[in-house]
Amino acid sequence: MNHKLIVFILVLFGSIFHLSAQKIRVLSFNIHHGNPPSEKESVVNLDTIAQIIKNSNADLVGLQEIDVNLARSYNEDQAKKLAELTGMHYIFSKGIDLEKGEYGTAILSKHPIEHVEKHFLPSPVESEQRSLSIVEVRINKKKILFANTHLDLKDNNKIAQAKFITSRFKNEKRPIILVGDLNSEPTDPAIKELGTLFTKTTSQNGFTFPQDKPSTEIDYIMVNSASHPKFANHRVLEEKYASDHRPLYVEIDIK
């Protein structure tokens, strides 16, 4: 066989393998500020959270219920600490001021974060302030928006917050991955609103709460439908110790 042809075939197969191995791996996890529900409230175990993230090999991670400089978690910046433990880039997005610190969500990324947005979400009914954080990263030479949120428990607020999210992204041309604890079942109005723009990874994301005997589907990974996503290896991780939620994982191919 011609030497140049052999080289071409090897390069072609190498390229195909490279592309097939470059799925975007995504994890969403409400970590309950690192306090395992089976332990005393004084126990905070970020090492276990970090190990779960590392074992997943996720490119992008959305975390909810993150403490920064709170007494109950020993005045540690949990977003920064988890970034250090996993070797990832990070941002923290405040929901509320609490004691002398802050409480909210965080994003971890294997890839450098090129741009950051943070929005406070609307609350027509008085409640705990919630936020939406968005980062831009470049994966497989594509610019991806990765958004993370933790919606309110109150129905009026959840619907308003979902509408804020769809309004923010309705004219967006780039691929968008949205993750978070949405405190909503699949048939709830907030999920139907998000469904006007986003596609869920499966018809059922899977039960993630409570962690010991999960019976509720409230944690989600979604991608804007215009990106024509393909999903693989979708699963709720068999993790019962680290938090009162189980982590949700999926691999995504985006057109």
From TrEMBL:
GO terms for molecular function: endonuclease activity. InterPro entries: Endo/exonu/phosph_ase_sf (IPR036691), Endo/exonuclease/phosphatase (IPR005135), GPI-anchor_lipid_remodeler (IPR051916). This is Endonuclease. GO terms for biological process: GPI anchor biosynthetic process. Keywords: Endonuclease, Hydrolase, Nuclease. SUPFAM superfamilies: DNase I-like. Residues 27-245 form the Endonuclease/exonuclease/phosphatase domain. GO terms for cellular component: membrane.
